[in-house]
Amino acid sequence: EMHTGEPLFSGQNEVDQLYKIIEVLGMPAQALLDRGTKTSKFFEKRANGTCEVKSPKDLKKDYKTPGSRRLQDIVGADCGGPNGRRLGEPGHTPADYFRFLDLIGRMLEYDPKKRIKPHQALQHDFFAMNRSSNGGSSSTMPGSSSAPPSVEDNHGGSKCTTNWRTTSIRVIQTRD
User: Which residue, among 97, 21, 101, has the nearest Cα to 66 in the 3D structure?
Assistant: First the structure.
């Protein structure tokens, strides 16, 4: 949403949100559903032991089959963002979007054991999109024409500093 300006899954409620996620990512693995704490709220178990999404009683929308919508279509990877509105802007070429899709795909992995970790995500090519031929990376964020900012925020007694130039995060304990 921060890169494209549009939510990936703009659901009106929990069920609508779930359907939109499943349209893109497909059904979660059965092992994950078996361990889920809210599985019975959203899924029905079939006689063969597999699950399917429950149909809400007041379902007024037509949803596509699981895994039938492509993430690249939602983010507009082939046309410069949703509805082409970022076409021609720095950081919004098809190649940039495919780096973005790789990162988002790893972040959206259902299984937390397989999902990309935050420190790994910060090292992803999406955050160093303008690589030189000798393997170095640029110091600007996608879509930015100037040096990236350093962001500081205080949360619960910790000071978190993010420097986009090095894509690293430092957390320092502070006293209140």
Answer: 21
